[in-house]
Amino acid sequence: MSRHYAPKYDETVAWIRSKCPPSLQHVHIAVICGSGLSGLVDSVDKDREKVVIPYKDIPHFATSTVQGHPGNLVLAHLNSIPTAFMVGRFHFYEGHDLALTTYPVRVLALLGVHTLIVTNAAGGLNEAYVPGDVMAIKDHISVAGLGGRNPLIGANEERFGPRFPAMSDAYDPDLRRTFFRAVKELGMQSIAREGTYCYVAGPSYETRGEARLLVQAGGDAVGMSTAPEVVAARHAGIRVLGISLITNRVPYRPVPSVSHEILGTPVPPAEKNQAPEQVVNHEEVLEVSAMRAKELQGLVRKIFELLPPPPPTRSTH
Known about the structure:
- The chain starts with 8 loop residues before the first helix and ends in an 11-residue tail after the last helix.
- By secondary structure, it is α/β, with parallel strands linked by helices.
- It is built from nine helices and nine strands.
- It has a single domain (3-263, 280-306), classed as Nucleoside phosphorylase domain (Rossmann fold, 3-Layer(aba) Sandwich), CATH 3.40.50.
- It has a five-stranded mixed beta barrel.
- GO terms for molecular function: purine-nucleoside phosphorylase activity.
- The purine nucleoside phosphorylases catalyze the phosphorolytic breakdown of the N-glycosidic bond in the beta-(deoxy)ribonucleoside molecules, with the formation of the corresponding free purine bases and pentose-1-phosphate.
- A purine D-ribonucleoside binds at residues 206, 248.
- Pathway: Purine metabolism; purine nucleoside salvage.
């Protein structure tokens, strides 16, 4: 991350704390709400303090421009745990540098966050997945990161973590176990999955050839967020639970040929009896998110009830 942002973290943290009562001066858990998942914040304890701060008012924050991303930082209690909700996130495709996209994650670390629950709406690559499934992320493939778009590029911020942080354990296994315990208690086994999330820069959806490449690489779902936030969080020593709501099937069969229609050549064998695949659109993403909103709220609350003890604290000041 660029040194350009280094002097601003403490200023942002101090400003946020100036808006909070004593019980929310330090938060322990953060939840990043993906497209259409802003309803997760409705799970907070109704009888405790709640602070809502628009991103546009927070010093050095960007603003979210995407439909389904309201753009508020909400500090409240969930199951009596001081929690920060990012209701909407920033994306590289909005024109933000990744240093700015992941800036809130480092602010959250300085606010005391030791556990991050990051959610997203994602397209299903795995043939077994259907819209409405909920996937615990066990690994990710950052296509943009492999191409040089990593939020840690630039001078290392030693106060957060080492120059070369490991990502082979990016998604905490104990938190994933907690996810599936919550799933079992709520009777959601039929829609629960566990798989690998692929991060692409967007904002265009994938071509069929690109989708096939991701499938061959082991991807189960694909989206335009999450991986940069997870990299920044793990660099700061924050443990991560990633949850993808599968909102659509990603078309990945070869694009149908048309040459035979004109030249009379044989139809390629792979295309015979091939059913048409639906084109992806953002409205579909929001519709499925709305359909699963209440269940996801219940799942997040149950996860909070079952959370394992936090890791030993490590100061980032």
